[in-house]
What does this fold into?
Amino acid sequence: MADTVVEIHVPLTPTPGLEPGAYPFPWIDQIEEFLAESEEDGSFEVADDGEEFGEVYVFFLRGADEAMLLGVASRVAALDGVPAGAFAMVTDNEAAEYGLGRRVGLPLT
It folds into this structure.
């Protein structure tokens, strides 16, 4: 049976107001830290390293039911500094490409 995977897609939007020459996407590190701390309780896992995919940066969650994974994705999208326009794709571990599946707007309301 295939596992549920939630891909968190965050627009690759540079953070405004940074010093010249600063890394334009500090929110990527912020999300990675948040996910690492959140998965420590074992209720879900970060399935893979995040990566750039077109005009978004994608993070991967698995190891729990869809509601739990979407809840985590929603908290990610609500973090301070995370660009607006994030969304989740609900798929399974057998998906051959990113961005396939059911799209869910984030944060959840």
